[in-house]
Amino acid sequence: MGKEGEALAQRMLRDKGFAILERNWRFRKLEIDIIAANTKEIVFAEVKTRKNSNFGEPETFVSSRQQQSLIKAAHQYLIENNIDLEARFDVIAITENNNMLTVKHFEGAFYPKPK
To answer: Which residue has the higher pLDDT, 34 or 95?
Structure first.
């Protein structure tokens, strides 16, 4: 179900005018589900897909530790690819209930904390 959720999230980002740069990009043991960009910004998206919301909404499962891992991997991606765009971290939450999908896109879901 995770791959299906990522494909749906990818289509949604394309529909919003983003070009998909990477899917499941890895840096060491870290992974970014989707990296997308338009002319103004680059988006690092974490996709959470669940069969139902019995144990909570999928977006609540992006822990602060996972956020820090995504930020670290994104920083590496920006350096490796010499990208100078405004970066944004999104969470795309997909829930299936009674064979119906609910998709929620949280733009700017979290930000790097200043040191």
So the answer is: 34
